[in-house]
What does this fold into?
Amino acid sequence: MKFESKFGPAYALAVCRLDTGESVMAEGGAMVTQDAHVEMKTSASQGKGMGGLLKGLGRRMFLGESFFRNTFTAAGKPGEVTFAPSLPGDILVYDMTGRDLIIQQQSYLASATSVEIETKWGGFKSFFGEGRMFWIRAYGQGPLALNAFGAIHCVDVNGAFTVDTGHIVAFESTLDFKIRKVGSWFSTFFSSEGLVCRFEGQGKLYIQTRNPAEFGAGVGSKLPPRE
It folds into this structure.
């Protein structure tokens, strides 16, 4: 299996080339094209049985994401599937090699079926990060495609680093984090900066150059009211 990101960073497309019999899993609605012989199956989650069903149900209840995932398999001969996110932006291909990756819930796009995807309780420290109480935890082996709003920038954290919560895409589990005010309470409410996330430790942090919530608020205020 080989993932490739094309046409970035503004309108990136993830191209997945499958060898015969290989499968790739993706978010519902992410598929753009597929070869005619590539077979698609829809299931509640990557897991099997009741455990898989509960994982999928947990995603729907707590993440607000699709209850179903689509799996594409190259039947009989190699094939190609392409995926794209709903928002314009870049796509990062991350190779899972045994180290956990913590993903902001809307940044997951697709992955090899050898990569396990599950919800991760973030505790109350995540609750203040724009209402996100859950992160996605990815682990296992194989490629994984992440999407962002805008371009994706990788920061090699070695010590401490602070980022606005709305710009987080993903980070390696070797990093610890805490939600905090950008300054005093006066600065937090009147600077328009809101809350930030302070990372500590050593590992990679991936951020997006645009904030979807801020963009939506800015555009939404200029749209005509619904009739």
Notes: The mean pLDDT is 81.
